[in-house]
Amino acid sequence: MKDPHIVKSYDRDLEGIQALIMKMGGLVEIAILEAATSLEARDEELAERVRAGDKAIDALEEKVNEEAAQLLALRQPSAGDLRTVLSVMKISANLERCGDYAKNMAKRTGVLVQMAPMEGAAGAIRRMAKAVELMLKDALDAYIQRDAELAEDVRQRDLEVDQMYNALFREFLTFMMEDPRNITACMHLHFIAKNIERMGDHVTSIAEQVIYLATGHMPEDERPKADRTSVEALRS
Question: Which of 5, 36, 133, 153 has the fewest CB atoms within 10 Å distance of its CB?
Answer without folding.
Answer: 5
